[in-house]
Design brief:
By secondary structure, the chain is an all-beta fold. It is built from no helices and eleven strands. Strands 2, 4, 5, 6, 9, 10 and 11 form a seven-stranded mixed beta sheet that branches. The protein has a four-stranded antiparallel beta sheet with strand order 1-3-8-7, with no helix packed on it. A hairpin with a 4-residue loop joins strand 7 and strand 8. The radius of gyration is 14 Å and the shape is elongated. The model has no long low-confidence stretch (mean pLDDT 95).
Length: 118
């Protein structure tokens, strides 16, 4: 059984910073991707940042402001968000795509709310 537990969301003023954390339990044979997505009501979930086979992907809308990193020893992926703007307000979801044995799975966290006030 794999679970993803997110933390670090909250309310912040524009220009502020937050760091999201996502820690997974359970074990993987291999992890292909660890990443963060976000969703606002009425819109599709969008990729914010991901680490895929060691390469980082950052959405254009957050490039230069957000940084993704991982700590393998802690089974944790982080999203450091600087210079936050109201448009960053969303529910942020952690995602891990990995293999358990020969089967690949997608796991999602429960989501953490980030609200940026102007």
């Amino acid at each position: 059984q794999v679970q993803l537990v997110e933390s670090g969301g909250g309310l912040v003023q524009a220009g502020g910073s937050l760091r999201l954390s996502c820690t997974h339990s359970g074990t993987f044979t291999s992890i292909a991707t660890m990443g963060w997505h976000r969703q606002v009501p009425g819109k599709q979930r969008e990729l914010v940042a991901a680490i895929t086979l060691g390469r980082n992907t950052i959405a254009d809308s957050v490039k230069g402001r957000f940084t993704i990193s991982r700590d393998n020893a802690k089974n944790t992926v982080y999203l450091l968000m600087n210079s936050l703007i109201p448009e960053d307000t969303a529910i942020y979801y952690c995602n891990i795509r990995g293999n358990r044995g020969t089967v690949q799975y997608d796991y999602w966290g429960q989501g953490t709310q980030v609200t940026v006030s102007s």
